[in-house]
From TrEMBL:
<dbReference type="InterPro" id="IPR036397">
    <property type="entry name" value="RNaseH_sf"/>
</dbReference>
<feature type="domain" description="Exonuclease">
    <location>
        <begin position="148"/>
        <end position="309"/>
    </location>
</feature>
<dbReference type="InterPro" id="IPR037431">
    <property type="entry name" value="REX4_DEDDh_dom"/>
</dbReference>
<keyword id="KW-0539">Nucleus</keyword>
<dbReference type="GO" id="GO:0005634">
    <property type="term" value="C:nucleus"/>
</dbReference>
<dbReference type="GO" id="GO:0003676">
    <property type="term" value="F:nucleic acid binding"/>
</dbReference>
<comment type="similarity">
    <text>Belongs to the REXO4 family.</text>
</comment>
<keyword id="KW-0540">Nuclease</keyword>
<keyword id="KW-0378">Hydrolase</keyword>
<keyword id="KW-0269">Exonuclease</keyword>
<dbReference type="InterPro" id="IPR047021">
    <property type="entry name" value="REXO1/3/4-like"/>
</dbReference>
<protein>
    <recommendedName>
        <fullName>RNA exonuclease 4</fullName>
    </recommendedName>
</protein>
<dbReference type="InterPro" id="IPR013520">
    <property type="entry name" value="Ribonucl_H"/>
</dbReference>
<dbReference type="Pfam" id="PF00929">
    <property type="entry name" value="RNase_T"/>
</dbReference>
<dbReference type="GO" id="GO:0006364">
    <property type="term" value="P:rRNA processing"/>
</dbReference>
<dbReference type="InterPro" id="IPR012337">
    <property type="entry name" value="RNaseH-like_sf"/>
</dbReference>
<dbReference type="GO" id="GO:0008408">
    <property type="term" value="F:3'-5' exonuclease activity"/>
</dbReference>
Amino acid sequence: MQTLIGDISYILLILVDYLLRLIYWTLKCVLYVLKVIIHQCLESNMIQNTKKQKRVQNGEAETVAIRGMIDANWRKLLSSNLVDNTKEVIQKETHYTGTFRRARKKNNMDSVNTNLESMQLNSILADSNKTKDTINNRTVNKKGSLTKFVAMDCEMVGIGYNGEDHMLARVSLVNKFGDCIYDKYVKAREEVKDYRTEVSGIRRENLITGEEFSVVQKEVAEILRGRILVGHSLKNDLNVLFLSHPKTKIRDTSKYKPFRKMKKGSTPSLKFLAKEILGIDIQRGEHSSVEDARAVMQLYCTVAKTWEMTLSTKRTYSKKADD
């Protein structure tokens, strides 16, 4: 009897040993299969990323080619009489009345070009003689003063993948008379991939010595509070500042219908409007946010009466409709 029990226990031990070995080799095979699957997934992801990079490079080449076609079409348009004819129609409809109010007081200025030259000369003299005070951590010229209407323009640098995203680098504000009331560079909050110096005029040293973004954001918000903001494509500027402004207090020259008619309904550039309406050349080479802000304020002043009259008429109709 004892011999039988011993034999049975021996057989059980052998069976347990075989089961344990079977489990061990099964787990080993499963781990090997998982390793192979993970390796193949990683290789497929690397191949897909390589294909995406090639597609991006091809897309950039196509974009450059399309831009070249657009430039060629633009030269053909300038050589035709379409722009001149459109300009005459817009001038008849809007009745431009001049540039800054300060310039309109002088009776001896007969043309827009003369007005602009005098404005630029005055700004140069003012820049050479002005002294600066610090008021509420904000740099304001003694001669410059805050007015109901304020024009703003921002310069940006490229961040993110291939520098395609925008980050604020400089912000400038001028009052209704074209006096610069605020102009500051902003420190970089992320790694800059493209300074866009040939267009923005921004260099690495400008951002190193710039102001903190939170300070600039707060100061600009204080200036804009309760005032009418004038600009060109203001959505982009407000986005990089992470600010909003009431729609009724925005005057965006890129959305003004008489200006858009000059480009047959498409968005006109600030350079185009300055050349066609004011007769001046801006943005030649590196841009200046102060110069752009002055130009956009001057554009607004030329059509201010018609623009404000149109807005007041729309508000009257909307009130009647609500009643």
